[in-house]
Each structure stands twice: as structure tokens, then as C-alpha cells.
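Sample log: Zinc metallopeptidase.
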Amino acid sequence: MVMLVSLYVQWRLKSKFEEYSQVGLSNGMSGKEIAETMLRESGIYDVRVVSVEGRLSDHYNPKDKTVNLSPDVFYGRSVAAAAVASHECGHAVQHAKSYAWLQFRSQMVPFLSIASQYMQWVILAGIFLINTTIIPLAIGVALFAATTLFSFITLPVEYDASNRALAWIKNNRIVNEREYVMSADALKWAARTYLVAAIGSLATLLYYVSILMGRRD
């Protein structure tokens, strides 16, 4: 069920961005120009805005302080480009203001980047060895619980970045009223992908826990 919902949300997200990518921004600004303006007006001068390959590959990298925008967003002068560019800058503002949830999330990344390489193998080994010992599965479940926690910590980070973006483009008249509604709709569907992912992770975690607890009983 969760997988079906996830596929639907992903489809809606792509269709929304396809639709809003065809709507030209009334002020004619590109995603790059919007991002640089938002950073500057937020008092941030040490973050670069760069173009990266891919589609919907946009992200903020706190390590090298770069707002990475896909070509469609970097060069685009559409409502979709405005929404995405300002959202990624929202993360840069979070970083500059030491937003607690972003800091917590960033602190988890080094551990999870290592754990994710071995987690599924540990869980698989734990299931095979469950009649002998529950230790491998318990370790695997603990690692998966950490990734699930990470998914839920990501939610306030993403929603807050969108709220910052929408407030800024509205208050600074980057978009008109019609374009604002479209921007909010696009970011709403983007946020829902993270929500569905978190719920899916929790469902999988509960499944593994049920296996573990069943063996302990």
C-alpha cells in the first residue's frame, strides 16, 4: 500500500513540475538569479549557486556551502524554477541560522552513510541466523531504526525550507498571487515524497521488529 502511495506521489510531483516548468515567471528571473538574490538579501555571502547535471537533482550541500541546481532550474525562468531555487536556498538560510533540526540531521549523516552500506546485509544475515541467535538481527533493526529516525528528522527540515522559500518569494514580490499558489502546490508535493518515505521506513521497521520480537517470544 505504501509503495503504491509512494509511486502516486512521485508521479504527481513530476507532473506538477512538468506543468509549472511551462509557466513563465512574470518577472523573468532565472533560478540562478532568484537563488543569488535570496542568499544576498538573507545576509549570506559565502554560499555559491552552481549548476549540476540531472533532473530534480537540486540540493544544498552544507559541506562546501553550495546551492546545487539542475539545468532546468538554474537556467529556467519558470514558476517551478523559482520554487525549487528558493527552497534550496531555504536550506542555506537554515544552515546560516544554525537551525536545530538541520544540525541534528547533518550530525547523523556520517554514521548513516557507513551504516547504510551494511545494514541490509546484517538484517539478511540476522534473518538466516534467527534460530541460532538474535544478535545480528537486533543490530540490523537498530541500524534500520536510525535510518527511520533520520527520515522523520528530515521532515521538519524540508517543510521549514519550503516555508522560508514561500515567505521570501511572496514578501519580495518574486511571484504574483497566481504564481505563488503554483509554487506552494509544487513544494507541497515535493514535501509529500519525504513524508511517504518516512512512513514507508517506519512500516518496514515495524515489520523487522515483529520478526525480532516473534523470535524472542
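Observation: The helical segments are 2-21, 31-41, 71-74, 79-96, 100-128, 135-171, 177-216.
Observation: The longest helix spans residues 177-216.
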